[in-house]
Specification:
Elements lengths: L20 H6 L3 H10 E9 L4 H11 L2 H5 E9 L5 E4 L13 H10 L8 H4 L13 E5 L7 E7 L9 H21 L5 E8 L11 E7 L5 H17 L3 H11 L3 E4 L2 E5 L9 E5 L4 H16 L5 E6 L15 E7 L12 H5 L2 E3 L3 H9 L1
Parallel strand pairs: 3-13
Antiparallel strand pairs: 1-2, 2-3, 4-5, 5-7, 6-7, 6-11, 8-9, 9-10, 10-12, 11-12
């Protein structure tokens, strides 16, 4: 059952936490509440349990108090436009995990120097149209391809956690140059996708810093096309950009910001931990600089493994309506690389994401 309940004219500002999202929404002006309700639905419930006496000491030690565990507030947020959904329970962040210090990760990175990506022109194949050389990277052809055109951007810097602003800009720009060459060779391959998996927890099979890019035919990948359809349906129904309206809602709650024309938000329905969405009218230096800024702040929050993607309209006209669709970057934390517990399971694959990090804490870090 939905827990949308009016709190009337409350004089006490609700604590800024995902568990108090309904109260925070109800404190907004009426027009902003209506916009929130158009985009999001919030449901809450209490998960109860009875712990045997033999577990009380362990619970108090690992979770702070018995009450936190016997009465757990769960908040379910659903994006009614994109149909993304997330379940939040603060207690899950306190689950005992086998985590090791980042110094160990850094040692693994250092020990991996000398892999094939350290000498890409000898250790990797080239695409049939050759390589693109950037000022901080070079492209290669992926040996085991996802699609007909599937390339790599191999960073000059071996350590994937050493991120310079000008280097990040170069990675994105080099990716577009690669895409142009592929499109020139095959004009049907016009749907470009940029992805960056950092360290093994994110799915990267090689430690050396690198990103990937693909060109696909016919239509964009299903999840990108699904977002395009949601974007156009929302524009037709309401006359607005759904990303712009989402940003308005997030900003009204303290979850959004704007840097040099690039809008960002600590997303209310993250696919996993600490997800950030950035968008701008088109790709370019302001967007790439915002990516660098977010990654620096995430690393300050002990993030060392992440996934990043860039969504853009196709390189040439297509049968679908992409009018107004912005350049969108999504970045998500994949957890401690040395943690043996997987962060994605059946819930994420087939139901809704289960997330421990509070978007309000993430937004505070981004805006600090």
């Amino acid at each position: 059952m939905s827990t949308y309940t009016s709190t009337g004219s409350s004089t006490i500002t609700a604590q800024r936490s995902i568990s108090n999202l309904i109260e925070l929404k109800n404190e907004l002006p009426g027009s902003q509440q209506n916009l929130f309700d158009r985009l999001f639905r919030v449901d809450t419930t209490i998960g109860k349990l009875e712990a045997p006496e033999s577990m009380v000491g362990w619970i108090n030690k690992n979770f702070g108090s018995l009450e936190k565990v016997t009465n757990q507030k769960i908040t379910k947020v659903t994006n009614l436009v994109t149909m993304e959904g997330t379940l939040f329970n603060e207690i899950r962040a306190s689950r005992p995990m086998d985590c090791k210090v980042n110094d160990e990760v850094r040692q693994i990175i250092q020990n991996s120097a000398g892999d094939p990506f350290c000498k890409p022109e000898q250790g990797t194949p080239a695409d049939t149209f050759g390589r693109v050389k950037g000022s901080h990277c070079i492209t290669a052809s992926n040996v085991a391809k996802y699609d007909g055109y599937h390339g790599l951007i191999i960073f000059d810097e071996h350590n994937p956690l050493q991120l310079a602003k000008d280097a990040i800009t170069d990675y994105f720009e080099t990716g577009f140059e690669w895409a142009k060459k592929g499109y020139e060779q095959d004009p049907e391959a016009k749907y470009y996708f940029f992805m960056w998996n950092c360290l093994w927890k994110s799915g990267a099979s090689i430690i050396h810093g690198h990103a990937q890019m693909t060109l696909t035919k016919g239509m964009h990948y299903a999840k990108v096309e699904g977002l395009r359809r949601a974007f156009q349906a929302y524009k037709q129904a309401h006359g607005n950009c759904v990303f712009g309206d989402m940003h308005t809602v997030h900003t009204s709650l303290g979850l959004g910001w704007e840097w040099d024309g690039v809008k960002g938000m600590a997303y209310l329905t993250p696919v996993k931990e600490k997800e950030i969405i950035l968008f701008a009218p088109k790709p370019g230096a302001p967007l790439y600089n915002a990516v660098h800024r977010v990654l620096e702040k995430l690393m300050g929050m002990c993030v060392s493994s992440f996934n990043l993607v860039l969504y853009v309209p196709p390189l040439a006209e297509s049968s679908e309506d992409w009018s107004g669709f912005p350049a969108v970057v999504r970045i998500v934390d994949r957890g401690d690389p040395n943690n043996k517990t997987a962060d994605i399971g059946a819930m994420e694959l087939y139901a809704a994401s289960v997330v421990s990090s509070d978007p309000f804490r993430v937004a505070e870090e981004m805006k600090s």
